[in-house]
Amino acid sequence: MMIDSKTKLLGLIGHPVDHSFSPIMHNAAIEDLGINYRYLAFDVSEENLKDVVAGAKAFQIAGFNITIPHKMNIMKYLDEIDDDAKAIGAVNTVKIENGKAIGYNTDGIGAKKALEEKTGILINKNILIIGSGGGSRAVSYELAKENKLTIINRNIEKAKILSEELSKNLKKQNSITYGDLNVDIKDFDIIINTTPVGMYPNMNVKPVIPLNDIKYGAVVMDLIYNPLEPVFLKEAIKYGAETINGIGMLVYQGAVSFEIWAGKKPDVYVMKKSINSNIR
User: What is the pTM for the complete model shown?
Assistant: First the structure.
């Protein structure tokens, strides 16, 4: 479909964004549905974040995704935030509707759907979450509903704060714990890296934690999708773990965001295929 005066604009806000597959998969979904939208990526530094919402309203942008490092800081510029995103404390999706910027979070749902492709229904699992940023908040919130969680971070105070916030918001006092990076990993069914360690272009780094004591049959997930096999997953494969990169989460969270903006369900197969076709 040609761009014309009625084309609605969607986008990605982050820093950096040149590694992102989001424009590829969203524009593939748009073309597949035959609707008059386009999706672009915008590299926005921290000092310019305050102007994003006003600019989006002025240009009548339909909505946008938020990625690293703005998922928490964007919240103070929004008019409304849905209950789950408030509880998570981070936003990855914004819809502009009737002059208001409304924040949502689809990351946790996306991660859960991606994991369940490999594990089946996720319930009563012992899960280790590495990191306490915006991505961790969403994934932890969703997975803690029916599983036991341990959140670890280089800065243990940040892990403690997130653990206590989630325990309070989900009313689960005994199933969410925290620690530092020296945790014993042998009892975890699932280990998830939510940090950017190993993300393009800084790929030649050490894994965020060693995995030599990993439980047999454990599943290791990394939210990074560029490269497709980040250093953390390479380490996991060495010790016989099942692995999941960030493509599945990217696609599923994007599909939920897309439906929020356009009111239509995109074909996740089309979105995945578009990414795979553009991977060198």
Answer: 0.89
Q: 240-250: buried (b, 16+ CB within 10 Å) or exposed (e) per residue?
A: ebebbbbbbbb
User: Which domains, from first to last, does the chain contain?
Assistant: 8-105+254-278 (3.40.50.10860), 108-245 (3.40.50.720)
Place of tokens 């990217």: 250
CB 241 within 8 A of CB 119: no
CA-to-CA dists, residue 276 to 17, 100, 225, 231, 248, angstroms: 18, 35, 11, 20, 11
Separation of alpha carbons 12 and 94, rounded Å: 10
pLDDT digits (tens, 9 = 90+) for 139-159: 999 999 999 999 999 999 999
pLDDT of residue 202 exceeding 90: no
Say whether 198 counts as a known binding-site residue: no
Residue 232 known to bind ligand: no
20 known member of a binding site? yes
Q: What is the DSSP letter of 241?
A: -
The two three-digit tokens of residue 88, written as one number: 């998570």
Question: Is the pLDDT score of 2 beyond 90?
Answer: no
Residues taking part in catalysis: 71
C-alpha 171 chain-centroid distance? 23
Q: Report the amino acid identity of residue 262.
A: A
Contact 109, 256 (CB under 8 A): yes
Q: Per the annotation, does 92 bind a ligand? A: yes
